[in-house]
Amino acid sequence: MLGTIRAFWNDQRGIAMILVAIMLPVIIGFALLAVDMSRANSLHNDLQKGIDALALATAAELDGRADSITRAELAKTTLLTNTTKFSTSDDPASNVHTLAVADVTVKYLTGIPADDSIGLNAAGVDANGHDWSSTDPKAVTFSLVTVNPSGDGDGAGSFATIFPASFIGSNGTFDIRPQAVAGFVQSICETVPIFMCNPFETTDPLTSKTIQQAFASGDTYSREFRILKVDSNPGPGNFGLLENGLTSIQEGMAKGTAGTCYSRTSLTTKTGVTLGQVNTGLNVRFDLYQGSLKNNKDLGYRPASNVRKGASKNSNCNKFDVATDGSALPLPDGTGYSSTTGMTLPIALNSFWTAYWAANHKNAAYPNLPATTDPLKRNVPASRYDVYNYEIAAGIVGDKSKGPSNEVGTPSCYKGDLTKADPSRRLMNMAIIDCKANQAKLNGHTAVKPDGYASVFLNNPIQKQNPNDEDNPEGTGAEKAISLEIVDVDGGFANNTLVDKAFRNEAQLYR
Question: What is the reported pLDDT for 358?
Fold first, then answer.
């Protein structure tokens, strides 16, 4: 009997079957886990693509306008009407789950941590406790999208396992919670490489206005703005130079480009502006080719299609001389000029235009033109830009002024293709900076956030203070102020002509 037992104990036949029986559940379990992990990875990838797209769509609306968050929310609900199958755990009838509004949390942020290793929770609070979220539509530039926890196990990120998790005390599901962060990036590429100090900035927050607020309230319309370069302590009525990608500032002023694109949120100032180059560059728009620009044929240096400027009979293609006998008149200067703000009063009466019209249009009576470009559409006198455009539209640019000047507004000095003359050549885009608030940053090579951008109209050519210096227009002789009108601004209050033409709006993923 003992021998039989000993023989059975030592008998190894069938041992493989026992080992297989023991290991089979483990093998099957690992196989199921592998399948589950593959499915989970696939679901995570699908969800990540979905919220990446959602983050980009919402961030693309965060352009700093008053309705940016409203538009971002509309983009969110519109995008989430798509029926993409992300999960099969919630609806026994249809056996599908779409990524819905309830499945995600979207927060709008003013910024994100510089270090990607610092995480953000769904509320926009980072691991250091800093809350980046905001409800200010003009302050937010990032969209944070997080998939919500499923709660009852039927959310978009809820994953139903094949592995029999009930054996280890689980309900057979777990959450997948990807996150995405996208940001709005706006840049402007068609702008001259100078900035203008905000004429509506004051030291009192109760009275200070952004350039957009001033435009929206009609305060910019028909005023003449005069800007001069100063070496230190710039303020309203001054301009300065920006870092650029040009070999010649003259080129940038003539062509209306800085040779690079500027970020909407950051500019770098520059010292050493050569005023002669700024002004001779601007004057090509009036069919004046001074200094090294004589007889230029470059298309980028073409004139506007209306270059009337009140020139005397002594003016020529290389030298501008103002008629003082009344036989030709430039667009009139404003009244009530304030050196504190660098601007005049708005045009108050239609009689402002009487002398200009009679001198330049055969003694005709001024036709009381409407204020076409007034953002408030008021019944007020036309601006200089309105009159300029009317002369072109009415075909009276070629009218001769009184003698002996006999000036016409059609260009004749440009040596290139004059059919390329363009009405918009007297418009240029320019950065506006709060110079009082940023005074310490404006003397060169310091980043500063612009108040905004404006489309400005050049009223008249720029001259030297001393007429004798006109023989050396690119020299260092003191300049008269650059005379401008503000035609449009960026932002939600504007006519949006500048934005449509000049700005590049992009959204990009950061996390």
Answer: 95
Phi, psi of 479 (to 5 degrees): -100, 150
Rounded Cα distance between 163 and 173, Å, is 10
Domain that holds residue 147: 20-161+175-186
Q: pTM here?
A: 0.72
Helix, strand, coil % over all residues of the chain, rounded to 5? 30, 20, 55
Please give the C-alpha separations between residue 102 and each of 154, 425, 499, in angstroms, as whole numbers: 11, 51, 35
Q: Are 197 and 191 in contact (CB under 8 A)?
A: no
Lowest mean pLDDT among 157-161, 228-232, 272-276: 157-161
Interatomic CA distance for residues 117 and 511, integer angstroms: 10
Residues 112 and 204 in one domain: no
Question: Do 300 and 436 have their domain in common?
Answer: yes
Whether residue 75 contacts residue 58, with contact meaning beta carbons closer than 8 Å, is answered with: yes
Are both 322 and 466 inside the same structural domain? yes
Q: Are residues 314 and 361 in the same domain?
A: yes
DSSP 8-state assignment for residue 470? G
Q: What pLDDT digit, counting tens, does each position of 323-373 carry?
A: 999 999 999 999 999 989 999 999 999 999 999 999 999 999 999 999 999
Taking the C-alpha atoms of residue 222 and residue 382, their distance in angstroms, rounded to an integer, is 7
Cβ neighbours of residue 335 closer than 8 Å, sequence gap 6 or more: 344, 345, 348
Question: If 0-12 CB within 10 Å is exposed, 13-18 middle and 19+ buried, where does residue 424 land?
Answer: middle
Spatial CA neighbour of 459 closest among 407, 370, 383, 353: 383
Neighbours of 70 (CB within 10 A): 12
For the cut 50, the answer to whether the pLDDT of residue 92 exceeds it is: no
Please state the domain count of the chain.
2
Check if the beta carbon of residue 296 is closer than 8 Å to that of residue 284: yes
Identify the band that residue 409 occupies on the pLDDT scale cut at 50, 70 and 90: very high
- Nearest C-alpha neighbor of 297 from the set 411, 415, 420, 418: 415
Dihedral, 132, 137, 138, 143 alpha carbons, nearest 10: 50
DSSP state letters, 138-204 = TT--EEEEEEPP-TTT-STTEEE-SS-GGGGT--SEEE---EEEEEEEEEE-S--SEEEE-TT--SS
